Amino acid sequence: MVVWQARHGVTRVHTLHQFSELTLVEANPKEPSQVLIAAEQDIALVSLKDGGILTHLQGHDYVIYSIKWYVGKNNPFLDDSEPVNHRAEGLKQGCAKLTECNERNRIKENSRQQNTKALGSFDGQYFVSSDYGRNILLWDLSAKRYITKINVPLSASAFKKQMSGKEKNSGKQHIALAWHNGNLLTSTVRGELLLWTLQPTGSKFKALHHLHTRAIYNVVVIGDVAVTSGQDRFLHGFHIGSSSHLFQVPTLGACATSLSFCPHDANRLAIGSQENNIRLLNFGSEIPLHTQLIWQNIKGKILSLSWHPAHEGWLLFGTGSGQVGWADVSSGRVTTFAYYHQKAVYKVEWGPSVCPQQTGLADNWCAYSFGDREIVIRNSSDPMADSIRLHKLAQEMDAVKIPKDVTEFSFSPDYKYLAIGSQDGQVQVHQSCDLKLMVTLVVVRKAIQHLLWQPPSDSSIPYILAIGSSENKIQIFNLEKNFKGEEGGNVLTQATQELCGHESRVVWLAWSPHKTGVLASASYDHTVQLWDTKTGKPMVNYGGHTTRVFRVEFSPADPDLLYSFAEENNVHAWRPSKLKCKTSSESSATLKEYLPKKVKEKEQTAAATAATAQAVVKEAEKPQKVSASSEKKTGANKSSGQNFPSSNASGGKKAVYKSFFPKLHMVCSRKKSFHQLAILNLLAQLKVTNISGLNNINECEIKEVEEDLEEDLGEDSNSRDEGEDDYRSVIVDTTEKYSYILEKDSEMATPDDFIYALNMFGNPHQMDTLLTSEIEHHEARGNDSQVGLMHCWRGTLDEHIRSAARHMKLTPFLVASAPQVSINLWKLASEAYAEQLVNEGDIVTAASYLVNISKVKEAVKLLLKYRLYREALAITKCRLGYDEEMVETVVTTWAASAIYEGNFDLASTLHLSLGHVEDAAHCMSRRSDPGALFISAKLYEHAGNVELTNSVGLLALREAALKHEHLKIDSFINHLPNLNWFRTIFCCHNVILDLLQQVTMDKEGQVNYLTKSRRKQKNQVYQETPNESKIVNETADIEGKSNINANVNGDVITPRNTQNCTSEEWVPLLERIEEEWLAQGITREQYPQLYETITLNFSTQQIPTSVKQLWFLVSVALSEYLMSSCLESWDQHLTTALGYVVSWGKADHIFHLTHALLPKGVNCLMTLGTTVVNEVDKDASSTVNHLRHLYYAAEISILHLHIHTDEFWSKLHSHSSDIKNEIPEGETLRHSEELETIDKESIPSEFAKEGETTVASKSGTLTVPADKSEHMDSTEKEIIEYGRAYCLPQSSNELITVLNLYFDNLNPTYMSAPDVMGLNSGLSSPEKLLLEIILKLRERGDISEDEIRKLLCKVPANRNIF
Fold this sequence. Notes:
InterPro entries: Beta-prop_GEMI5_2nd, Gemin-5, Quinoprotein_ADH-like_sf, TPR_GEMI5, WD40/YVTN_repeat-like_dom_sf, WD40_repeat_CS, WD40_repeat_dom_sf, WD40_rpt. One of its GO terms (cellular component) is nucleus. By secondary structure, the protein is an alpha+beta fold. Helices cover 38% and strands 22% of the residues. The strands form 17 sheets. A five-stranded mixed β-sheet has the order 31-32-33-34-38, with no helix packed on it. Strands 3-4-5-6 form a four-stranded antiparallel β-sheet, with no helix packed on it. The radius of gyration is 50 Å and the shape is extended.
């Protein structure tokens, strides 16, 4: 964090090591020495005095976006001022009313303060923060916590817009913050500004405006005005007090890329932007200017614009992605051409077709574009048509070839000629009609940047062409004479006028539409120059830009106004009449006066003192760039040091090196007289030792000399000492003799310095002395790399390596160099270096060094210690494959670690690789997914463990059933034949799931719990009664099952003349389960054995923890229920099945099970299946009575749930009115007492025909013929009961009928059915729910008070409902 003192230009830097990145800073307005710092998700209060953290706050889950201090007088939960009603203030009259108002405000303020004290007092400094998750936290610094949290909605408007994909997966959602009179202002991600009323228990907001079309980035409050800036690049001013919009200011969010004035409307300017859009400014509107933004279907930054010369409002554009299209500015519609350039489009222009006879576009305007170094022609009337390439068209016309490296093109004002510029600076001017080459301009030598024809005057068209190029000159060509000749092909090597004055390339030109001959040019020298092309002199120069200028245009409406832009996010408008500078050099000189002057570098001193010598030594130890000049000064060459390449990340910097001879560098860092005296001393040494005579000794004499040296080896030290003394005396004499060579004010170097410097050029003994001294110098300063290399040069690595091993300073180079001394030393160094690498954390490399010296087991143990199991196993199998015990140790250790980490698949694989099948199976059995359990069962089967195979296989089947993976269940059973009995549960579970899916998919509002069954019956003859045949056939015809009849028992009957017929029946759930069992080959003879097996494996009672487990357990209980052999077990398993849904406590699940067991009503017990228990025992069973009670209790709960919805009442009213209109005179609905005569049962509404009255009750859909309702026999009643379906009441009369039915059928004896079963159903008392339904009917007023009283009388008075 940098603290700036702007007045004195002083800065102070504080580093907060606790955070990796600082993202936001906000100064405390009440305490200037404190700031709030946001570090991603954390907030810290930091002191600017010492950079210490005073408070560290945490609470955000996303990166923090904005922080604002609260500057109000009270805490944020107390408004600083009440909202003022200006209209009421103006109507106040008299002091009495004012006093009364003040008293009322005082009482209100006291009550607010009491409420605040009750909620908790907040006395410290406050601030608010927002993050990218749209969360806002209000903090109390004194409490060091946040005191309220707000989540800003995506939109505050009543109409909730569908979220886009970007908003759903948005990573950053910007919420700007501000305070106004103690109230919090925030933005939304959709551009709205909200005003919040903060309360500890809950905050409310009010939308102030929705002026922005995209997210708001910042909010600034100035008085009562809130200024907002957003992603749509607009600044909006909004007055909070009057809720009025004050202004809208358009801005540029990126650098402009093109300018173009409309030729039909001088007040309209088009600006292309790098933000992939076009802004249209209307200078005829009031300030702020009206702005139109065109951005849809534009891909890439706009690089070029061109207005259509004939169609008003058509704007042609080219983008950086190769797209070309035009926009209709009146409608904002964008039309793009099908063909895209491969690269950016740098120039677009409207024009008539060249060679119209060949192209067939004689009457059409074409869009010309330049990109990919070629010019492309497009038909504007057919954007999808193929484009025409100009160079291919020229080849077909046998005209002069168009340059391949095109950089620019431009049509003449009358579109008769086309100028084409190229990369080499040549400009070709062709005739448009046939591409005939008229003239070639070869003056410019660099790439053409812009070609511009002078606009026509009133009398004629001057064919004057201005050329801007990568040169700093502008060429003007008058081509009128060249166009008069018919031959053409002229070559011009000299311009008519040359404009000089720019200091860099010229990239854009603009002719003045007001004054003939005035030209403006934009250049990379940061200036815009105006020229008088008639005289060739500069007029004025605009230097207001600080970067490269790209465009300049004259205003068509004002002759003294120009527009230009550079590499900046703004467009400059300036007047030449107010400028004083005439050239770019003058503008640059003027600009330098306002720029801060650079501090001059201090002059370097070159005093050769002892202090500077020490500085030179230190400098020599630092990395230095190698240069030829330094080598000349020091007398060193490149071979005297080692180059260390620098990192490529530094941008390709030159290699740096560290000197190996710092002492020599220090001695030789003197003035040139020292080196001159050194040369004289070396010459004197050669004379003394007669080196020249030794050069002529032949080989025999050399051998004799060597033998003499060996004999006199003991006298070498004395002779060397004597030689050094003689050498020193020679140096002293020589320096005294030539002392006049020294510069003034210079001291003579000591003889030791000369001896040390000349050791580099002396005999091997002298070089060894020099290296020894340099090595000691490096060791004292810890330069281990240089020490190792220099010991290698000397051949003294033995002792150095041993010392480095003791001090753990080995390097790869020393270890690699050890074998040249001895193998034992190499082993010692490798082992020591491995220990060193372990301490440094490089375990794998350390183990590799141990492997190199054949200590493989030690390497493996090292890897196992640091849990590098893959590396350990690879080394063990490659180097110790014969040692099975070691391999097993590695694998078992790895497996134990995998089990500890929960990676049971890996542990199983490892155990299986060793042949430990049961261990592998045990690992897989610890997982809970079906696939893993099945694999575990197969492994146990391979190991011969039948008991565990069946146990784990059953777990796999159970988990697959819970996850509804039915394909896996079938495959598992095929591979585990011992578990074939599980097909009974599997089939039962499938049938239940199919029934639930059928019920869920019903769309008619009715729910039928009968399931479909297909049976084939052949040659069956049944003589039905006429009444039976009529009713059943009507039912079959309505359901779309022609030629199918059924008797009263539900059996399929076939007409006498029918031989074979396939019918589709609706059967109860339990019957459908037994059919499925039979299809799988499970007969009733197998029931006892299957019952025993299922009971043995599912003997433990469980409580369901999920819906999937609930229905699986119900499937098990129903399977046992159907296979029961006695009344006691039958009753027990039915109780178990009901207990599961009751314990789950959801009305809909109780509803599903009870209606699936009794799909034809509570009185038809044949659907409960099994032939073991007769109907009398079923009817007397307490469990069956509990089932009946739960049947009605679930229906009452469903009805109670729906009466609280508006949709239910609207349907009820509409059906009631329809029934009143449809019932003829003399036909009425039957009362609840009459319904009892047909057992309160009914059939689906689709069985109803014309002339019948439908009463859809809660207990079912009842269809009763109006003229036969009192004369129905038992057969008709059974037919109606057979088709029973459930739906909600459709009218008020039906609702009353249903309520009467429930009161008459609820038996108080079984009101505590769940309690008797030892379970808590989670359902409210049915009587309580019925009473609430009746009270709701009274509240709605849809039923008469008499009917309400009748219903209330049926509520038992002796039960405490509430």
